[in-house]
């Protein structure tokens, strides 16, 4: 966990923001809007996008072709955000998202990254031993399934479109969204019923 900000760091941030406002780079309203959008973001947004893709073929096609456009269509402003890519899991390929350098994460659709995602241990081991990391989450894939580790970066963020679990036929998007978690959306776990 990060240490609380010091009085000096808060003062420095306040001077920096004041300088940006004074130069017309940003307004108080823009700052307030960004804070509100960031605080509103959560894994439930990504879960609703996945559930919609599972029930709406046209939306699924858009989500896989242009995740940012699909997020916008779902009511999420992607202004100023890096592009969002969506990785489709299949019977033969499972995706695991990691940011090897820091904690690049699709915050607009998943909210704040969990502490483990930012840890040096996860970042290194996900690349070196992805099956071992998955097993620690209880995710054991058949030997024939390829695990693709995808690096989320400052220039491009990634989210996983997991396979729809068997036994969910006839479920509506709301019920489907309720079984999708953040862990499914970065690939450390598989949704089930």
What is the element layout, followed by pairings?
Layout lengths: L6 H16 L5 H13 L2 H13 L1 H9 L1 H7 L10 E5 L4 E6 L8 H4 L4 H4 L1 H9 L1 H7 L9 E6 L5 E5 L11 H5 L4 H5 L7
Parallel strand pairs: 1-4, 2-3
Describe it for me?
The protein is mainly α. Helices cover 48% and strands 11% of the residues. It contains eleven helices and four strands, in the order αααααββααααββαα. The strands form two sheets. The chain has a two-stranded parallel ribbon. A two-stranded parallel ribbon has the order 2-3. α3 (43-55) packs across α4, α4 packs across α5 and α8 packs across α9. The longest helix is centred in the N-terminal third of the chain and has 16 residues, at 7-22. The chain is globular. It starts with 6 loop residues before the first helix and ends in a 7-residue tail after the last helix.
Q: How many helix segments?
A: 11
Helix content: 40-55%
Instruction: Give a short account of the largest sheet.
Output: 2 strands, parallel
- The radius of gyration over CA amounts to 18 Å
Tell me the structural class: mainly alpha
Q: How far is the first residue's CA from the last residue's CA?
A: 33 Å
Give me the count of strands: 4
Average predicted confidence as pLDDT: 94
Low-pLDDT stretches: none
Write the H/E string, N to C.
HHHHHEEHHHHEEHH
Query: What share of residues are in beta strands?
Result: 5-15%
> What sort of overall outline do the alpha carbons produce when their principal axes are compared?
globular
Order of strands, main sheet, comes to 1-4
